[in-house]
């Protein structure tokens, strides 16, 4: 159940991240509001992820990489807003995202693809 909440939180969070990104790019004044909602989802991702932690030892890496994904999303948005280069943050986002999904699916709760 909580794994579904967690998946819902990060799927919506990532969609909002892309919407906010394209709004910032096109100078849409609503981008500010979307950015706030995206940040609310960072919190939801973190809280639902936190609810899944049963054993800190096994989950510490998952948690750190999850936080790196969120940090990379926020850095992409802030740097886009400031018209700074975002390539390094995009690479961090993609690499950390692939890694965190792999970790999530190799850990025992919910979907358990990579045993
Ligand atoms: C955007 C960031 C994140 C993504 C894309 C992500 C992705 C995933 C995925 C794919 C799963 C597996 C779900 C399942 O097996 O049904 C999962 C589970 C989990 N996530 Fe995240 N996660 C993110 C952030 C976080 C954060 C910040 C935390 C910690 C605070 C966290 C903690 C956990 C825990 C403890 C599990 C359960 C693992 C298990 O035993 O299966 N996640 N996550």
TrEMBL record:
Keyword Membrane: yes
Protein name (record): UPF0344 protein ABE28_005915
A cellular-component GO term for this protein: plasma membrane
Organism from which the protein derives: Peribacillus muralis
Ribonucleoprotein is among the record's keywords: no
Domain of life per record: Bacteria
Localization: Cell membrane
Chief site of localization: membrane
Membrane-protein topology: Multi-pass membrane protein
Transmembrane segments: 6-24, 36-53, 59-78, 90-114
Keywords: Cell membrane, Membrane, Transmembrane, Transmembrane helix
Assigned protein family: Belongs to the UPF0344 family.
InterPro entries: UPF0344
Pfam families for this protein: DUF1516
